[in-house]
Amino acid sequence: MKSLIPDYVFDSIYDITPDFLRRHGVRGVLIDLDGTMASHKAALPSEALTPFMRGMQAAGLKVLVFSNNNARRVGKFCEALGVPFISRAKKPFRRGFQAAAEKLGLETRQLAVVGDQIFTDVFGGHRANALTCYVQTLDRRFFWVNVRYQLERGFIDRGKKRMEASIRHE
């Protein structure tokens, strides 16, 4: 059960800073695309996303978009951002996370996994021994995404409590 509880919970990816990640020993960031960086309906990145990604890279963090979506969708989005990606990542299975770590030249324990789903991003990130950062989905207005959120809400709330306790001890 505890592998479904995120280490940290944020309202959006923009609340996650390079400083925060480096303080936790993170050297590489695997960021989910759909619902995390953009709505699954958005073909291209928003204007705010490029400076965010560049800021991560400028701080010395290796960034990889890590998505279960197809190569055409993820490739077009990432080409506009100028960042590497892995599509059909097979989250939550360990081998996808291991492949991402190898692509970045890091160990999985040096990674942060940022995503909007408990059962793929958080669960898979924990299985790979990475730091997990849950962000509120951008697609909450869609019926099935909202149903999933209702199933995940208890784990998210526990993650918030875990995060508050961790911050108090830092």
Folded structure, characterized:
- With 170 residues, this protein is of the alpha/beta class.
- It has helices spanning 18-23, 49-58, 71-81, 94-104, 118-127, 143-168; strands at residues 8-10, 28-31, 62-66, 85-86, 111-115, 131-135.
- The protein has a six-stranded parallel beta sheet, with helices on both faces.
Give short descriptive properties of this protein.
170 residues; alpha/beta; 6-stranded parallel beta sheet; 6 strands; 14% strand; globular
Distance between the termini: 25 Å
Mean pLDDT: 91
Q: Note the total helix count.
A: 6
Q: Classify the secondary structure makeup into a structural class.
A: alpha/beta
Q: In percent terms, what proportion of residues is strand?
A: 5-15%
Helical amount: 40-55%
Overall shape: globular
Biggest sheet layout:
6 strands, parallel
Strand segment tally: 6
Strand order of the largest sheet: 1-6-5-2-3-4
H/E series: EHEHEHEHEHEH
Poorly predicted runs of 5 or more residues: none
